[in-house]
Amino acid sequence: MTSGSPSDRSDPQGFAGQPGPVDDEAQWRRPAADAPSLPPPVPPPPTEPVAYAGPPPTDPPPAGWRPPLVVQAPPPRALPAQDLLRLDEAEQRARTLTYGIAMVAGAVMILVVLVLCGRVLL
């Protein structure tokens, strides 16, 4: 291997000849068994909790101020009456057509499966 290649971790110059740590994983290793342990951290001194002072003061709006007026839209017009019998008949025709198309598609799929299975067996 050449010096400075990324796979050469023993190079004292680090990667690509640049100075750097030789072992990137050193900080994550366990300390040696005979190494002295660090003392526990000193807790910060206790502080008194700060009382909530409330929301910041607000300024009232100027006298006579009103929100912008939006033009009122006219009320919606009345919809035409629905012919419920005609709607039911149209839904029934649509359902019949949908079932017919589904049956034809199912029959075609069964025929395709039979043809494919027949070709495998022959």
Description:
There is one protein chain. The two termini are 60 Å apart. 31% of the residues lie in helices and 0% in strands. It is an all-alpha fold and 122 residues long.
Quick summary of this structure?
The protein is mainly alpha-helical and 122 residues long. 31% of the residues lie in helices and 0% in strands. Residues 1-8 have low confidence and may be disordered.
Largest sheet: none
Low-confidence stretches: 1-8
Order of helices and strands: H
- Helix percent reads 25-40%
Entry keywords:
single chain; 122 residues; mainly alpha; 1 helix; disordered N terminus; membrane
Helices and strands in order, then pairings?
Layout: H1 84-121
